[in-house]
């Protein structure tokens, strides 16, 4: 039997008994010094896949938990803003520590909740809210605390990574793979939160705030999903030495401004993130003096996510009698990030074009790009189809985003350019 190092019998209340909450309850049975005092559920009478569950501790009113004077730690695993926001505010005001997996709440209301926690000398731990079972917040706050981290490159959504992996390996369409992912339970019936990048944006907002030591505004994060990625894009990228991944990116400029965004990228085949396949997540941090470090593992699921929740519970329980709870884990940011607009970022680009099979078309593409201060790094032309059109794929040198958008507008006006199929940023 697993044993914790906790001296005191710590009482916890759990809000939510879905996939993650069920995993937490199952694991906590092995820790004799942690007592589950109450669990809030929507339906008290619903059958639960938990052996010997004491139904007397169930309540359908989550405020019973946050107002219970016996409870030391409130574990919130219901997600969303309402009613989680009001519940956690009440719990913090009542002097309770918080463990949460709620990425959206932290991204939108984290600053207020962290400030309130500091005022009430409690902590909010949220390892499970960023990368599921991958430890990332604790290493940043402790082992890597002496570093100045300046770059984060991450795959933070297992659903989109699964879809892109299957598209690349099977040369099938986005729509086909999405349906398969839904049938396997990897994608929701409404997959918008995943495939349009919202989930990754919530996660990178909090991760960047902690790692870059500046408050990042979720509303200023550029977000683009994977719904426009085609099987042809995957094929062309591979021929050019890349894989396409949905990347959550955060960087500090030389002027200490932050560049935080979520969008597909062509990742060089030799880059460590290119090898992250299926539902796996990964976070790459770069800073001084450590250099470049990588964390990878399961980004979701009952037990991986519950593992992070349990770790946070035990960390709090081990210091629950101290005068100041876990000072290293508290939020002390007092600087709002100056976030760079996507139009001012500098990137390389992949442009997929359908063009008429006429002499000089590639030359005209180069001329148009040149007029907008864009140099071409490589050009790939594929076979001619029955309509006498060709697929042309261009990789540019690094240039300013607003320039590439201007060039795309001019390309679309050219009579020999039938369609701009896609524009994807390229990781250097």
CATH class wording of the largest domain: Alpha Beta
Number of alpha- plus pi-helical segments: 14
List low-confidence stretches: none
Number of separate domains: 3
What percent strand? 25-35%
Characterization of the model:
The chain is α/β, with parallel strands linked by helices and 428 residues long. It contains 14 helices and 17 strands. Strands 7, 8, 9, 10, 11, 12, 13, 14, 15, 16 and 17 form an eleven-stranded mixed beta sheet that branches. A six-stranded parallel beta sheet has the order 3-2-1-4-5-6, sandwiched between helices. Strand 4, helix 3 (84-93) and strand 5 form a beta-alpha-beta unit. The chain is elongated.
Highlighted features:
428 residues, alpha/beta, Rossmann fold, Dihydrodipicolinate Reductase, domain 2, 3 domains, six-stranded parallel sheet, 14 helices, elongated
């Amino acid at each position: 039997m697993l044993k914790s190092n906790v001296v005191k019998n710590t009482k916890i209340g759990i809000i939510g008994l879905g996939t993650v909450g069920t995993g937490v309850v199952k694991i906590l049975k092995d820790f004799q010094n942690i007592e589950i005092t109450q669990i809030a559920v929507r339906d008290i009478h619903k059958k639960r896949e938990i052996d010997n569950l004491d139904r007397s501790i169930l309540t359908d009113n989550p405020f019973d938990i946050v107002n219970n004077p016996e409870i030391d730690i409130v574990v919130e695993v219901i997600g969303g803003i309402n009613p989680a926001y009001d519940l956690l505010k009440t719990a913090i005001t009542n002097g309770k520590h918080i463990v949460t997996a709620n990425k959206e709440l932290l991204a939108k209301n984290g600053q207020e909740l962290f400030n309130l926690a500091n005022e009430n000398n409690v902590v909010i731990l949220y390892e499970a809210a960023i990368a599921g079972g991958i430890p990332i917040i604790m290493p940043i706050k402790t082992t890597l605390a002496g570093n100045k981290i300046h770059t984060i490159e991450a795959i933070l959504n297992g659903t989109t990574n699964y879809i892109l992996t299957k598209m690349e390996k099977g040369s099938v369409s986005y729509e086909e793979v999405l349906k398969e992912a839904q049938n396997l339970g990897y994608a929701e019936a409404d997959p918008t939160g995943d495939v349009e990048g919202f989930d990754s944006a919530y996660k990178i907002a909090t991760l960047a705030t902690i790692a870059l030591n500046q408050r990042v505004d979720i509303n200023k994060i550029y977000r683009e999903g994977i719904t426009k990625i085609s099987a042809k894009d995957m094929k062309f990228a591979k021929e050019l030495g890349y894989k396409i991944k949905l990347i959550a990116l955060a960087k500090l400029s030389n002027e200490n401004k932050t560049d935080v965004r979520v969008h597909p990228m062509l990742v060089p085949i030799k880059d460590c993130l290119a090898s992250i396949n299926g539902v796996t997540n990964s976070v790459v941090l770069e800073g001084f003096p450590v250099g470049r470090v990588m964390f990878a593992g399961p980004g979701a699921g009952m037990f991986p996510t519950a593992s992070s929740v349990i770790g946070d519970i035990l960390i709090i329980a081990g210091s629950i009698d101290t005068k100041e709870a876990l000072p290293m884990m508290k939020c002390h940011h007092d600087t709002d990030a100056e976030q760079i607009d996507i139009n001012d970022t500098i990137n390389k680009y992949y442009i997929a074009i359908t063009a008429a099979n006429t002499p000089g078309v590639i030359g005209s593409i180069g001329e148009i790009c040149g007029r907008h201060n864009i140099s071409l790094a490589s050009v790939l032309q594929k076979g001619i189809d029955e309509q006498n059109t060709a697929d042309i794929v261009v990789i540019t040198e690094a240039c300013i985003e607003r320039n590439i958008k201007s060039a795309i507008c001019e390309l679309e006006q050219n009579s020999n350019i039938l369609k701009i199929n896609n524009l994807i940023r390229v990781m250097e």
